[in-house]
Amino acid sequence: MARRNADGIFLFLSLSLSLCVCVSLRVSAFRSLAGFLAFEFLRSRVKNLPTLKVLNVDPPILTAPMFLSAKECEDIERAAFGGEGNAAAPASSSSSGAGPVTRLSSMKKAELVKCCEERGLDASGTVAVLRDRLKEFNAAAGATTATTTTSGGGGGDDGGSAAANTDPFRTSNPDALVNSESKPEAMNQLLKRLNFLFPDCIEEFEPPSARKENKLWGIEVVAEAYKSAENVQPSHAAYEQHEAIERHYQVRANCTFFLNDSDDDGGGGEITFPALPGLSVAPEKGLALITFPATAASLLDPRAATGRNAYDGSNTLNAVDVLIRGATPKILTEEEAAIERKHRHEEEKERARLSAIPRSERRKMRKDEDKPKNSRKKRDTNTTNTNN
Hints:
Elements: H1 2-40, E1 53-56, E2 61-64, H2 70-81, H3 109-118, H4 127-140, E3 169-172, H5 175-178, H6 185-197, E4 217-226, E5 232-235, H7 241-247, E6 249-258, E7 271-272, E8 280-281, E9 288-291, E10 306-308, E11 317-327, H8 334-356, H9 359-370, H10 376-387
Antiparallel strand pairs: 1-2, 2-9, 3-4, 4-11, 5-10, 6-9, 6-11, 7-8, 7-10
Helix pairs in contact: 3-4
């Protein structure tokens, strides 16, 4: 009997020790991951997210099952899409026709130029200018679908099929999710958790810029109802360097929150990563997918490009993307650069002047500077002279 009790105690202690070692290793690994993310990408409190799973370290691809509860998913889905949350795929025309242009956010400059020429629009300018010009054309043509995000790096993973009625339906900053008076409490909770995970994630929907005081960070909320008969071509959530400089901000993190499951037994709608063959993330209600499409230096990371498998089930795959946008480093104008150069030149002259002075005299100068101007002895002398 005593032998049996001793064996039980030994087994219990062994299991406890193994558990402690596993917990210690997990904490240590997450601490290392947090340091890596802060240095290379974006400051994150990953060690405080208990359900976090690391699918890939570099580039970082993270998932967090049960980030949202079933009820929170349903509340957000009802607010964003209405009814049962199964938004019908919007009717849209191909980007090669004369109608409204779809897939704007994933188009390259050559495609944008071609679309402008086909519609008799001015085809000169940067990518951002051409996209804005085609957005105005869509609005004038009575387009009823939101085919691209309007103020951020969103759309990096919307892509789209050229076939009619199969483009992912994306709406940037829908009023139902960003208006403080109308958005559901579940959306408030989502943003609070996201702010805890990313301390720089602030609830500010205006595009950030280094030229605006206290406007270095912001977010964009994108509601997406996905349904496509074809695979979506890979695209980026972040901007190329020249476009990020023009916009004054870059997409630093892309957080996708799935609101429902696929009703197709064969699956479909998985988010894929062309740079990482074999890795994909299937839609799962309440799951959060976190990627980092740009580095801490605001440079696009081509390895973070995402595509999406076809899905033609009876419902749409609904999700909410939250794009964390950070201001790009401030680029000085010619006048500001001249002032900066003059200031640096004056500082160098002053350092050269001080270095030419003997060390003993420099020490004496420092002592004189540190000496209080109104010493007690001087005050006592002034008091005596006053009394006399």
